[in-house]
Amino acid sequence: MDLRSSDEAERTPLRSTASDGLKIVIVGGFGVGKTTMVRSVSEIRPLSTEETMTRAGVGIDDAGGAEGKTTTTVAFDFGRISLNDEMVLYLFGAPGQQRFWFLWDRLFSGSLGAVVLVDTRRVQDSWYAIDRLEHHGMPFIVARNHFGGPMPELEDLRKALDLSDDVPLIDCDARERESSKAVLIALVNHLYRLSTALEGAR
Amino acid sequence: MMSRPVDKEDPDRLYIVTGGRSRVDESSIDLVSLIVSECDPSPGMQSEHVKILRMCHNPTAVVEISAELGMPVSVVNILLCDLLDTGRITARHPSTAPVKDKLPDPATLKQVLLGLEKL
Q1: Does domain A2-201 have CATH number 3.40.50.300?
Q2: Residue A106: pLDDT band by 50, 70, 90 thresholds?
Q3: A122 in contact with B at a CB cutoff of 8 Å?
Q4: Which residue, A110, A176, B32, B107, shows the most beta carbons closer than 10 Å to its own?
C-alpha cells in the first residue's frame, strides 16, 4: 500500500483544461531506442502498459505459434507532452513485432503519424514496420538512431529500406532532447505538407 | 512502478473485476480519451472504481489509468463504461477521431508544431 500511495504522489496531473489527446507512435525493433526517445521529450517518466488479445482475435492471427494460447499480450511504453492548455500529445513506443500489428487498429487508429526508428545494424527489422504502416495508411517518417561509429550515407539507407523519395529520412540521437524534438517536428511538418496538399486538391 | 505482467497473473482476478464481461463498445473510448471524475467514491464501491475516481480528479488518459492500475487497456475500458453509464465520470474524446486515410487538418497540426517548438 505504501508503494501505491507514493506512486500516486509522484504522478504529474494534467491541467484541468486538458481536453484533446493526440497520439504519435514510435515504432522500432527491440533495443533501437524507442523508450529512450520517449523519455528524452516526455514530461512524465515513461510508463508502460499492456493490451491483450483474446482467443477470438488470435484466430485471425495466422502467424503461427499462437495456437493453444487463450490470450496474446503486447506491452508498450508511453510518455506525454502538454502542447497547450487543451492539447496533450501522447508518445507511444511500440514494438514492431508481428503480433503487435493485430492490435494496431484498436490502439493506434487516429494517430497523427508514426516515426520508424532504425538501427542501421539491423535494417531488416524495419522492413516489416514500414510495410505495415503503408498498409494501414498511416503517414510516417524514418529516423536513424546513432549508435556511434561510422554511418553509411542516408541515401544508401533509403535504398536499403526501399523507401520512396517523399518519405523524410533523418538522423537523430534518441538520448538528446533537442534531437528527439527535431524528429517529432520533422514528422509534424511532413503531416502538415500532406494535409495542406490534400486541402488544396479539394 | 513495476506492474506484474498480466499474462502471468491469475486470470480469475481480471474476470472478477469486470464481472465476467468481455465486450464493450470499444469505439466510444480511445486510448487517449481524457477521463474526469464527476463525484467522489462512495462506500461499497468496487476498489478499481474507487481508484479511477481518485485518479481522475484531474483529466487522466485511459492509457495512464491502465498503467497505474496495472491492467490491460480493454479491461480498463470495461470499468470505465460502468462509470460512464452511471454518470460518475465524463470522457473528453480526441478531436482527431479515427477516420481511415484521413489526415488531421492543417490548423490542428499547426497547433501541435507550436507546442513542440516551445519544448
Answers
A1: yes
A2: confident
A3: no
A4: B32
Q: Which chain A residues contact residue B106 at CB under 8 A?
A: 192, 195-196, 199
Domain boundaries, chain A: 2-201
| Mutation for testing the A interface, residue in B24, B26, B63, B66 having most A CBs under 10 Å | B63
Asked if residue A59 has pLDDT above 50, the reply is: no
All three cell numbers of B28: 466510444
What whole-number distance in Å separates Cα of residue B59 and Cα of residue B36? Answer: 5
Closest of A150, A171, A169 to residue A161, by C-alpha? A169
Q: What average pLDDT does chain B have?
A: 85
Q: Which domains does chain B have, with CATH numbers?
A: 6-117 (1.10.10.10)
Alpha-carbon gap, residue A83 to A176, rounded angstroms: 19
- CB-based contact (8 Å) between B10 and chain A? no
Confidence of residue A152 (pLDDT cuts 50, 70, 90): confident
